[in-house]
Amino acid sequence: MKRMGIFSVIASFVLCAGIASAASMEMGHMDHTDHDMVMEGPSEHLSMSFAATPASPRAGEPVTLSFTPSHVDLEEAHGALMHLIGVRRDVKQFFHTHPEPQANGSFAITRAFPEPGRYAIWLEAKRMGMLHRFEYALVVRSAKPSLWERITGTFKRS
Ligand SMILES: [Cu+2]
Q1: Tens of pLDDT along 61-79?
Q2: pTM for this prediction
């Protein structure tokens, strides 16, 4: 199998054309490709609240990321109503997913982060013809040490 590296990360971003520019900015490339106009952050048309449950997750434990839009009439963009990517600060961890609509009007996804660290999370949603990109931060703590590790002190924090 080929080594997974920065290029597979970029390839994944290509699936989400709109979000690609956020990712390339994060990686220090400023080249701009053709895509919808993107509003950075909230506008009069759309704002978004974010919550993580638990708020301070540990690696390996499921955490629900939920996003509540200010308006219900989102428009599909690139095949989904919401696109979510997360990148750890060192770009060694990456995910791209699509939060699912919930009965309460929010969109949510539950996942476990395999590795601790500081993640930047971008959510993209479209309303009134305008893509909006929201940026959040999430700190994933180290996995909970087992009783054995706590007793013997073999637990290593990364
Ligand atoms: Cu997507």
Answers
A1: 999 999 999 999 999 999 9
A2: 0.73
